[in-house]
Amino acid sequence: ALELTGFVPAGSVDTVAVATRDPVRQSAAALLRALRQHGITVDGGWRIQWDAGEDFGKGCVSGSVPPCPFGALLVDLPSPPLIDIVPSVLGPSQNWIAEQMVRTLGDPGTGRSAWSEGTAAAARELERVVGTVPSDVRFVDGSGLSVQDLLTPRALVQLLRHAWSRPWGTAFRAALPEPGEEGTTLADRLTDLRGRLWAKTGSMTNVGTFAGYVTDARGREIAFAVMVNGANLPTSAVRGGIDAVVRALAARR
């Protein structure tokens, strides 16, 4: 539960966005409410099971729900094509969807789907297909929010160049935010490069990054990655420096 205190003038609307502290429990409670609202009875309420391999009745164990002989599929919600999901991640910088995408990679050998299997699969593919070196990449989650994630600009540029060379390269570039595009992280940024820039931002405390494609003055497509780490400067100063680098690339002749 959230307790909000303060004053809001009559007739006005004030919206506050907060991070969910326990999304798993809140989601489970919301699912139970929705089921009851539709007349579905749930025996025993709900509980959260974190550890794999623990018995929860009738020969079923956590972490192995699909093979459970007493399990029954209630509803199937097919996923949209990946290329339709990617813009929802890159445009608004949606961390939750990014986490779920990594979890779905899983391990084809064991059938498990978790962060450890997903991040390992992503690292393997970057090395095998894109040609990155192991020392340039370290993933521990899907969103990049962990301070243990490590990535070099070189690896990012390698990935961007590889993507542009593939048949789906144009669709991937189109999924990246563009200056002035509403609902994205570039809605009010680098609008003077509209139509020439497609790029993704990345921001944390004392961290500012920017990577994507920019078309220079001669019409050449440039893959770039700019990373600022531990700057100890105001966000506006870091962002201004990054934008200056991008404008310099765009002005190349």
Chart the SSEs and their pairings.
Elements: H1 23-37, H2 82-90, H3 95-105, H4 115-130, E1 137-138, E2 150-151, H5 153-165, H6 169-175, E3 197-204, E4 207-215, E5 221-229, H7 235-250
Antiparallel strand pairs: 1-2, 3-4, 4-5
Helix pairs in contact: 2-6, 3-4, 5-6
What does this structure look like?
With 253 residues, the chain is of the alpha+beta class. The protein contains seven helices and five strands; from the N terminus they run ααααββααβββα. The protein has a three-stranded antiparallel beta sheet with strand order 3-4-5, sandwiched between helices. Strands 1-2 form a two-stranded antiparallel ribbon. α5 packs across α6. The longest helix is centred in the middle third of the chain and has 16 residues. It is globular and about 70 Å long. The termini are far apart.
| Principal-axis shape | globular
Q: What structural category arises from helix and sheet content? A: alpha+beta
Strand order in the largest sheet? 3-4-5
Distance between the termini: 57 Å
Q: Gyration radius, to the nearest Å? A: 22 Å
Determine the strand fraction and express it as a percent band. Answer: 5-15%
What is the element string, with H for helices and E for strands? HHHHEEHHEEEH
* Helical content (DSSP H or I, runs of 4+): 25-40%
Contiguous uncertain segments of 5+ residues? none
